[in-house]
Design goal:
The complex is a heterodimer of chains A (280) and B (492).
Chain A: H1 8-39, E1 49-50, E2 53-54, H2 60-67, H3 74-105, H4 111-123, H5 130-139, H6 146-156, H7 162-170, H8 173-181, H9 186-197, H10 199-215, H11 218-223, H12 232-237, H13 244-264, H14 266-274
Antiparallel strand pairs in A: 1-2
Chain B: H1 2-22, E1 38-43, H2 46-50, H3 53-64, E2 70-74, H4 83-86, E3 95-99, H5 100-108, H6 128-132, E4 135-138, E5 141-144, E6 147-152, E7 155-159, H7 167-170, H8 185-197, E8 208-211, H9 217-220, H10 222-225, E9 232-234, E10 240-245, H11 252-263, H12 274-284, E11 288-293, H13 298-311, H14 316-326, E12 327-331, E13 335-337, E14 354-356, E15 359-368, H15 375-385, H16 388-398, E16 401-402, H17 405-411, H18 414-424, E17 428-430, H19 441-457, H20 469-489
The chains are: A mainly alpha (280), B alpha/beta (492).
Chain lengths: 280, 492
């Protein structure tokens, strides 16, 4: 067998690349490892840590998280977060996909104006309008209602339609024209042609629409006054300084579903992110 | 198409007008139906909730008032929820339990209703100083806006099993059965220095004496108020004069020299909140001999100490019992050196060489929200919550020092008696009950932290900033000016 010759420069290049990549991985992974280790601290305190890690370990923080609910009702916060994230994701995904499909497929009056307006409005940080959001919600009696969060997340979702529009732009118009010649209506085209082709994009959209409410803090903090309605991020922020391990355990646990989702759907996710990047 | 548009526009207009009209009409929300249940939302502090006292109170009240159709429930909000933000929109509590400075800041902005003390059975048992914490002066009239429940002051926490074995012979010169380092600051300094000098560890970080985060005015106010400093002065009629800011008055600068000296026996954690956060573990593992905190944190110290005992092989029950036995809470030493020099031998000081320490404290109490629909029911609730039985239960469950003299006198609890006595003897400087007090914390925290840091500057090659009393005086005057500017110049 002929031996493939690898130059010294190539080896050096690979070594340097790997060293840099490993260093970056360590830098990013270390805080995660630290918070996971802290969640197993026996004393429950950040100040029990000798060097980088706790001096003794136990599962007590996880047990407390789910059993000691008199003051900090984590299971309830988790259910609230799940409810908000799932419904925001479902409704938001439908709205984003519909918006992107409409803008991509149809030519109508004010289309360009609408696109430009959406682009400009999406440049403003969302917390700028929080006072106005609060007053609007007060007047509609939507404070202390989980549906108020879903309404805002879902209604705001179509503002980020550009990635999806880019993907729909790559679907050749001739497919739609052929379908129309065969007598398909716009609804049929959307359901029977566009949606099956857009599976990676739908998964990507659903995942991003899920991740935002899953970890958002500002909006739930603003709109939910009642502790029973708090989401995990608001609840964890209310833990006092002596409850650090419980905070760490809560943070680790809340990140598990999203990590699983990302890993199991990574195939679609990568396809969704890169889709539409190159126009053919 | 045009017709559809017109019809749509008309329908939209009708909906909008209907929507606006829906908001009109009678807004009287008092119950018209005699069978209607009045629900009171009560916002208590987290300790009362976690220890089960709030449930006890609500159940007892609801049982006693079930015939009247009044039900009290937990407001279930964050204990520091902003009444000013939530109250006007109807999301705030009806009755709120808070410290006097917070409650009176709300009262200044009319978020809390004025009350008549004579409506409350507890009134005659509560000392005037405690009532004063909830009095507000408006246009020459005095209004009471809160009902005092308990007094808070910084206390010293230590482990009895970490007392030096020879303390009765070596550290109790007056032979009164109380170690000298719990009676005066010079001996506390001397014992802390002894511990530091004999620290066996290579890094010299395994044994400290008194430890505190010195950036906290509330916990370290004795270094200012014992020496004649004050927050706000008083007018001739006894009302607070918020233009007269007195952090630099009297010999407060001398007091801060003592603070600076004490910081020299700690580590750099005294500059910021580090010691406040580590104190529970460090007292438990014996690194700190004693520290300062408020009485409501007692259970946290016990919890950490119990864990420590468990680690040494005790059962959970044994560890808890031993922790409760060994964790002690006493008042801060009552004497400070008049010249601010903690290193002087206490046995050489005459009575006139001391000043009596005045610590900062607060009074927690109930206030009634201005936005409640049921004022009379709220009065009924507060009357119930401040009754002898409920305050006694509160004291037993939460270890508070009640303002009710009858409960305090009959309890047999030395801590609450001591605190009550200190209040009546003016050894507690109560946080001023005006909203301007919000402006004192940040500047004072910055200065106190900086003074503590001065003890470490020489070691790191920096120039010391507070070598003399004059330096300290200049800094204190600067703080007073900053606070004045924050209240009057920047706020305008």
């Amino acid at each position: 067998m002929k031996k493939k010759h690898v130059s010294k420069a190539a080896i050096l290049d690979a070594v340097i690349t790997y060293v840099i990549l490993i260093a970056v991985c360590v830098i990013f992974f270390f805080p995660v490892l630290w918070i996971i280790a802290s969640s197993f601290s026996r004393s429950g305190s950040i100040y029990d840590i000798k060097g980088f890690f706790p001096s003794s370990f136990s599962m007590a923080s996880y047990v407390k998280l789910f059993r000691d609910t008199a003051m900090y009702n984590y299971p309830n916060w988790l259910l609230n977060t799940l409810f908000v994230a799932v419904f925001s994701s479902l409704i938001g995904t439908v709205l984003v996909i519909l918006t992107a499909f409409t803008i991509s497929t149809f030519q109508f009056k004010s289309r360009r104006l609408l696109m430009k307006s959406a682009l400009v409005l999406s440049m403003f940080p969302s917390f700028m309008g929080m006072t106005a959001v609060y007053l609007i919600m007060v007047n509609f009696n939507l404070i202390n209602q989980l549906w108020s969060l879903i309404l805002i997340y879902a209604a705001g979702a179509p503002m980020g339609y550009l990635v999806q529009k880019g993907y729909f732009d790559t679907i050749s118009n001739t497919i739609y024209e052929a379908a129309r010649i065969d007598g398909a209506t716009n609804g049929m085209i959307f359901r029977k042609i566009t949606l099956p082709l857009a599976k990676p994009m739908i998964v990507y959209t659903a995942l991003t629409q899920f991740a935002w409410p899953w970890s958002d803090f500002i909006l739930p903090k603003l709109l939910l006054k009642n502790k029973e309605l708090w989401t995990v991020s608001v609840g964890l922020a209310s833990l006092d300084e002596t409850q650090f391990s419980r905070f760490a355990a809560g943070s680790v646990f809340i990140s598990v579903p999203i990590v699983i989702l990302y890993f199991s759907l990574s195939k679609f996710l990568v396809a969704g992110v890169s889709a539409g990047a190159v126009k053919e | 198409m045009r017709r559809i548009r017109r019809d749509f526009a008309v329908t939209a207009c009708v909906c909008m007008i209907a929507g606006m009209l829906a908001g009109c009409g009678n807004s009287d929300s008092t119950p018209k139906d005699p069978d209607e249940i009045i629900t009171l939302r009560i916002l208590e502090n987290d300790t009362a909730k976690s220890k089960g006292y709030l449930d006890e109170l609500l159940n007892a009240f609801n049982e006693a008032h079930k015939e009247e159709g009044i039900v009290a429930v937990d407001a279930n909000m964050d204990e520091y929820s902003n009444l000013a933000e939530n109250g006007p929109y109807g999301y705030g509590p009806d009755v709120i339990y808070q410290a006097n400075d917070k409650l009176m800041a709300y009262a200044s902005d009319k978020h809390i209703l004025p009350i008549s003390p004579e409506d409350y059975e507890c009134a005659e048992y509560i000392p005037e100083q405690a009532w004063d914490a909830f009095r507000l002066q408006v246009d020459g009239e005095s209004y009471t806006c809160g009902i005092p429940v308990n007094i808070q002051e910084p206390m010293l926490f230590y482990r009895a099993d970490k007392m030096p074995e020879n303390w009765e012979t070596e550290w109790d010169d007056d032979g009164n059965g109380v170690a000298d380092f719990f009676e005066n600051w010079n001996d506390l300094y001397a014992y802390s220095k002894y511990l530091r000098d004999t620290d066996p560890s290579a890094n010299k970080d395994s044994q400290y004496g008194f430890m505190a985060s010195f950036n906290n005015l509330y916990l370290n106010g004795e270094f200012i108020f014992s020496y004649g400093g004050y927050v706000f002065g008083k007018n001739a009629d006894g009302t607070l004069n918020t233009e007269d800011i007195g952090f630099g008055k009297g010999n407060a600068a001398t007091g801060l020299m003592a603070l600076r000296q004490m910081a020299g026996l700690m580590n750099e954690g005294c500059i910021d909140d580090t010691i406040t956060s580590t104190r529970y573990e460090k007292v438990a593992d014996g690194t700190y001999f004693c520290t300062v905190s408020t009485p409501d944190t007692y259970t946290l110290f016990v919890e950490k100490l119990a864990l420590q005992y468990e680690d040494s092989g005790m059962s959970k029950e044994e560890a808890q019992a031993k922790a409760e036995e060994n964790l002690k809470m006493v008042e801060l030493p009552v004497r400070l050196p008049a010249d601010g020099d903690l290193s002087r031998d206490s046995s050489e000081l005459a009575d006139g060489d001391w000043v009596e320490s005045v610590v900062m404290g607060g009074v927690n109490g109930y206030g009634i929200s201005s936005y409640t629909k049921y004022k009379d029911a709220c009065v009924e609730f507060v009357n119930f919550a401040t009754s002898y039985d409920m305050i006694k239960t509160r004291q037993e469950m939460l270890g508070i020092a009640p303002t009710r003299s009858d409960v305090s006198a009959e309890s047999g609890d030395q801590t609450s008696e001591l605190i009550f006595q200190s209040l009546s003897e003016n050894r507690i400087y109560l946080m001023p009950s005006v909203k301007e007090v919000d402006q004192i914390w940040t500047p004072s925290q910055t200065l106190l932290g900086d003074v503590a840091k001065d003890s470490f500057r020489a070691n790191s090659g920096e120039t010391e900033k507070y070598k003399t009393v004059e330096d300290m005086q200049t800094a204190l005057d600067g703080v007073s000016k900053n606070i004045y500017d924050a209240i009057y110049t920047l706020a305008d």
